[in-house]
UniProtKB/TrEMBL annotation:
Coiled coil: none annotated. This is Uncharacterized protein. It comes from Corchorus olitorius. Keywords: Leucine-rich repeat, Repeat. It comes from the Eukaryota. Transmembrane segments: none annotated. InterPro entries: Leu-rich_rpt, LRR_dom_sf, SDS22/Internalin_LRR.
Length: 177
């Protein structure tokens, strides 16, 4: 069944547009240069939220209310370890299947243990020095991207029996003889 067209209502000053997002399932805010999501409506119907290429340095706590969310991307933002930490307590997002934290300011693997259905996890292009923490990742993981970091050792992935793609290129891995 096709979604009804989104109704656009010009505001009185014709400078802003009001859009009814109440039944929207995908929200792509790529390259909006957002510093926060204060001006963004986040309907609980969302299954995909793409915040790629913004200036976000913290998580909006309203994301925790998106109980239908399957895909969440914070690619190319300014998220650091402290900023991503709250996500590990957002039990309402436990059904998340794809989490993209690529190209941020992470120094360690975030705790993703609550995501029991996680299929894709991308932490490439960060400042991660160790794979420590991946032992908590769901065994459902099929794709793991950790390339372009500072990782020196492959560890904590023995339980990932469903893994089909493992990207570790451009790290500090050394072959020992």
């Amino acid at each position: 069944m096709a979604e009804p067209p989104t109704e656009i209502k010009p505001d009185q000053d014709d400078q802003t547009v009001e859009i009814d997002l109440s039944s929207t399932t995908t929200l792509d805010l790529t390259s909006f240069q957002l510093h926060d999501l204060d001006s963004v409506e986040l309907p609980t119907s969302l299954t995909e939220l793409d915040l790629t290429a913004n200036r976000l340095s913290r998580l909006d706590s309203r994301i925790a209310n998106l109980i239908n969310l399957k895909k969440l991307s914070f690619r190319q933002n300014l998220i650091d370890d402290a900023a991503i930490e709250p996500i590990s307590r957002w039990d309402s997002l436990s059904g998340l299947e794809e989490l993209v934290l690529r190209d941020n300011k992470l120094a360690k693997i975030p705790d993703v243990s609550i995501f029991k259905k996680l299929l894709v996890f991308d932490v490439s292009f960060n400042e991660i020095t160790s794979m420590h923490g991946l032992s908590k990742a769901s065994s459902t993981l099929k794709e793991l991207y950790v390339s372009k970091n500072e990782v020196t050792k492959i560890e904590e992935i023995d339980h990932l029996h469903e893994l089909q793609i493992l990207e570790l290129g451009s790290n500090r891995l050394r072959v020992s003889s």
